[in-house]
Protein: DnaA inactivator Hda
Organism: Aeromonas simiae
Amino acid sequence: MIHWRPSLIDKARRVKQPAQLSLAVQLPDDETFVSFYPGHNAHLITALKNAAIGQGSPFIYFWGPKGTGRSHLLHATCAEVNARDAAAAYLPLDQFDTLDPSMLESLESLPLVCLDNLEAIAGNAQWERALFDFYNRWREKGQPGSLVVTSSSAPRKLGLQLPDLASRLDWGINFHLDELDDEGKLSALQLRAELRGFKLPIDVGRFLLNRLSRDMRTLLATLNQLDNASFRAKRKLTIPFVKETLEL
């Protein structure tokens, strides 16, 4: 289904939406701009914040490796729009087999449309045509809302079979989402820990980076696990406690 997203501030709030479309589906509460450590991506974040209020470039395409926070940033942009009682649509295209291209119909009237993981539908003729038609409807609209698309690579390197679609994706403002280095990942973990109400000592953070996958989703999931274990055991996060909890 289309993932219609209510405000992260008020979970009970529903977005305004055309009657024929589906009800809201909740966004992750912890994926906001506040919880995203920017690293070298400050210009992209500024562009997304502007898109959420209908300013700046109406079309943003950004790309980067899996695990760099593409979905997090789309969720954050939707949250900004929903906090203003406006409607946003988020489509995770890596789930295209459970979605229908007809869901793109009428989306051009919304203040914000986010299409995530575009690489997933590369080579799928039905989806490529549907996206091409949607983009044309959106662009032909007098005052279009914001359109934000993410993928794993630049438009021309996606392997899209419809050349006109690839050219359309090149028309907007493009960003490469830079992956955090180890120090950036440590800062991101400390930021997330602070937002959860505890401190992550530097030595513990570096121990996690040295002993676990450096994928941010893995690191953040482990941080949540350690936070819960520390709370239950009423113990501070130390390297011995981490070793015991994670059986390292």
Q: What stands out?
A: The chain has eight helices and six strands. The chain has a mean pLDDT of 87. The first helix runs from residue 42 to 52. The two ends are 40 Å apart (CA to CA).
